[in-house]
Structures are given as C-alpha cells and as structure tokens.
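Lab notebook, design round three. We kept the backbone fixed and only want residue identities now. Task for the bench partner: fill in a sequence for the structure below.
Input structure tokens:
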C-alpha cells in the first residue's frame, strides 16, 4: 500500500476509536444521570435491550465455538465494549422517538 492510503486508514481508524470512546463515556453518563420517569424508562429499556443483545451474542459465540471445536478465549473485550455502546446508543434513540411526546 502507498503511504497516503495507509495514512488515510490510520486516520479513519483513529476517528472510529474516538467515536467509540465518546459513545462509551456517553453511555456511562446517561446511566448515572437522574431524570424523570419517562427518561428513566427510556434508559431502563435501552439498558435491558443492550444486555439482552450482548448476552445473546456471547451465547451464540460460545455455541459456534463449541460446534466448530475452536477454543473459547477468542473474544476481544474492546470489540464487545464498542458494540455494546453502539447498541445502547441506537436503542436509546429508538426509545426516545417511541416515547417522546
């Protein structure tokens, strides 16, 4: 690869990394911030959906690894945290639109 293409990929990766860090921090802040009953319900439903999807993904990954005979220690915690923050962000947007007045 050319150095210009490599530099572009490096900048895109760093931008994606910063986006994931911002989403993780925003997820933690929204979980700790107090609010009215509607906001608490939105955060609760988003959290429950995120937990369910993460647990389902891990269970599916375990089943696939057991069926294929691969070792079970191949999951990357950074990828899991990034996916969790994206799922929480999208679920929060969905429930905010659903329960907004």
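Proposed sequence:
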């Amino acid at each position: 690869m050319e150095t210009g293409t490599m530099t572009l990929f490096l900048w895109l990766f760093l931008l994606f990394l910063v986006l994931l860090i911002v989403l993780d921090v925003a997820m933690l802040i929204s979980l700790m911030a107090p609010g009215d009953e509607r906001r608490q319900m939105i955060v609760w439903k988003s959290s429950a959906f995120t937990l369910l999807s993460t647990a389902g993904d891990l269970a599916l990954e375990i089943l696939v690894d057991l069926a294929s005979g691969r070792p079970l220690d191949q999951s990357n915690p950074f990828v899991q945290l990034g996916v969790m923050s994206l799922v929480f962000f999208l679920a929060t947007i969905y429930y905010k639109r659903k329960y907004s007045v």
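Keep this in mind before ordering anything: The mean pLDDT is 86.
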